[in-house]
Amino acid sequence: MMLREVKERVMSLGIGLEVSKVMIELVCKQGYDLSYGARPLRSAITRLIEDVLSEALLSGDCKPGDTAVVDVDAFGNPFVKTNESGQSPHLSNAKSLM
Fold it and tell me: Any idea where the Clp ATPase C-terminal domain is (predicted)?
């Protein structure tokens, strides 16, 4: 649900959003805490997805009509890749979770 909200906000700017399966797993791993409920999950989404996406938007890397793909590099750092053709790359289970 939280990722769907982020996707809707980004789509209101005319930008598509896809999140890789690896990134979703990382968010779930870092956002899981039985004692604190969903608070750590919200924080993980903000830190790992929204912050890097905001940087890409502010730098001009993502423009209306693009699809921003949030993924994890080989070192475990989140990054945004832009698919300028407007076609979403295939990311396993990413659409079903958003």
Answer: 1-81
Cβ contact 98:9 at 8 Å: no
67-87 pLDDT, tens digit per residue, is 999 999 999 999 999 986 544
Which pLDDT tens digit goes with each residue over 45-65?
999 999 999 999 999 999 999
Distances in Å between the alpha carbon of 60 and those of 14, 55, 56, 88, 91? 13, 9, 6, 19, 24
As given in the structure block, the two tokens for residue 14 are 């005319």
**Mean pLDDT value across the chain:** 85
